[in-house]
Amino acid sequence: MIKKASKWFKSRSIAIKYFIFLFTGSLVLFGLLAWNNLQDAEQLFRKQVLTDAKVIIDRTNLYLDAYLDNVQNILLLLSTRDDLLDEGKEQEAIEVLRKYAEKNSTLYKTLYLVRADGKVMSNTQVYFDIIGNPHLSALYKQAKSSYGIMISEPYDSPLSGKTVAFILPITSKSDDEVKGMAVIEIDLIRLTNMLAQFMNTRNQTFTIVTNKNNVVNTFDASWPLYYYALLPYNTAVFPPELESSFVSRISELPVGITELNGAKGKLVAVKSGMNKLGWYFIAFIEDGYFYQNIISLYNNYKTAAFVWVVILLISTYMMSRYVTYPVRTLVAKMDRVRDMEVLPSISVQREDEIGRLAKSYNAMMERIHHLLTETKEMEMRKNQYELKMLQSQIAPHFLYNTLACISSLAKQHKTDAVRDTIRSLVGLLSFSFDKSSEFVTLEDELEGLKMYTHIQKVRYGDKFNIEMDVAPDALSCKILKLTLQPLVENAIFHGLAPQKVQGLIRIRAFVRRGKLMIIIRDNGLGMSSLQLESVFSERRKAPSKHRFTGIGIMNVQERIRLHFGAEYGLRIASVPEVGTLIRIELPELSFKE
C-alpha cells in the first residue's frame, strides 16, 4: 500500500505535489488545533453538565427527605389519635383522613386507619368498600414487627395505582398495646412528575430504585414518548416497565459517575447515595448530548476550515497557472503522442528554458511525423505485396500434374474430358490472377471452387465427391477471394486422399442474425487434439509443392480478422477416423453496401 502511494505521488505534477504538501500540513495543523479545542470544550461542558446533575440530584434528595418528613408528621399526628381506632369512631376517623388528604392532595393518594380486628377506614371509604385493598393485611403484619415508620416496596394498589406505603403502628396510650396502624399510599405519578421537571428532557432522564432493586418512579401516559426513548422499556406490558436486566445493572452501579449502554446508545449515569427513604436516585444523560451544545463552535471551525481550503485551492491554482502551466501543457501535448494520427505541436511564446524545450519538442514531433508517415506507407505496400503474392501463387507441381492428366486424357481420345479440364484450368487461373479486387461474391468463390474440384477429380478419379447447399440470399454476400479453396484443398489432401474409401465434402452456407455462416464438413481421417492445436501454426511451415497455392488455414484466419475484426474467423472441430468440421463466420456484406 505504501509503495503504491509512493509511486502515485512520484508520478504527480509539481502543482499537485505543492498542493498536497501545503494542504496536508495546514490541514493537520488546523485539525490538531480544532480537535484540541473541541475536546477541551466537550470536557468542560461535560464537567458542567455532570456538576449540574449532581446538584439537581442533591436537591432532589433533599426534596425527598422533606417529603419523608412531611409524611412522618402526618403519621405522627394520626398516631396521637388512637381513639379513632375505637369502635363507634369510624365515621370520625374517615372525616379526619379526608381532611388530611384534602390538605395534602399533591402528595398523598390514599390514607388508611386499620384496626387490630381488621376494620379499615379510608379517606375514599366508598371506593374501598367496593374495591378493597388486599395489600393491607400484609402491611399490618409488617407494622406489628416495627416500632417506627416503615416504608414498603413499590406495589400496585387498587385505589392508588402503583404506589409506596408509609406505615406507622398506633399503640394505646393506656397500655401500649398495638391498636392498629396508619397507612399512607403516596401518589407516585405526581411524585415522578415533580421530579421530572428537573431531569426529563430529550437527552436526559432518571429513575429511582430501592435498596431491594425495585423501581419507584412510574410510567405516565401524558408524557411525550421521547421521555422513555433513552432507557430500555418492556412494552409488552402496560404500563411499560424497565427491563429487569437493566434494573439489575443500574442497581449494581457504584455511587458517582458511570458509563453504560441504554436503548439508543451510550449513557452517562450519575448515581446518588441512599437517602432517608432507602432509595437511590440515578440520572441518565445521553452521551451525544455533551456534543450538541458545542455545535455552534463546531460550525465555526467548519466555516474556518472551508475558508482555509478555498484559500489553498486559489493559491494552488495561481501557482499552477503562472508557474507550472507551461510545463503541464508540454506534458499534455507529449501524452497525446500516443495518437499516431495526430502529433500536436506547441505554440512558442517564451524565450526561457521552457521555450527552448518547446521548440525542441516541435522539431522532434515533425521528425517523428515524417518517419511515421514513411513507415506506414512502407507497411501498407508490404502488406499489399504479400497479399498479392499469396493470391497469385500457383504451385508448378500442380500445373505439371494437371497438364499430365490432360495429356493422358488426350491419348485416351477423351476429347470432352480434355475440353472440360482445360476449361476448368483456364477459369481457375483467370480467377486466381484477377487483380481487380480482393473481394468476390460467394457465388463467384463457389464457381472457382467447382473448377478446382473438377481438376482434382480428374486427378483422383472418384476418390471424393463434393456437395453444396447454399441459401439463395447468401450467394450475393461479399467474401475474400480464395477463402474456401485452401480449406477444401486441405480436406482433400489430408483427410480424403489417404483413405481407401470414397470421401465426401459437404459445403453449406446461409445467413443468420447479420452473419454469413459457411460450414465445410468432410468424413476424412480427422485430427487428434494435438494436430488440431497445431493447425493455426501452419503459416510458419513451408507450403507443399503438391498444393494449388501457398495459402494455408492460418493465412485464411489472419486475412479474415485483418479485414473484418477479431470476432470473425474460423472454428475447427475434428474427431479421428470420423472427420473434420470447419465453421466460417463473416459479416453479411454485399457489393451494394
UniProtKB/TrEMBL annotation:
Catalytic activity: ATP + protein L-histidine = ADP + protein N-phospho-L-histidine
Residue span(s) of domain Histidine kinase: 480-590
Location, primary (coarse class): membrane
Membrane topology of the entry: Multi-pass membrane protein
Keywords, alphabetical: ATP-binding, Cell membrane, Kinase, Membrane, Nucleotide-binding, Phosphoprotein, Transferase, Transmembrane, Transmembrane helix, Two-component regulatory system
One term of GO molecular function: kinase activity
Location in or out of the cell: Cell membrane
Protein name in the entry: histidine kinase
Organism (species): Paenibacillus radicis
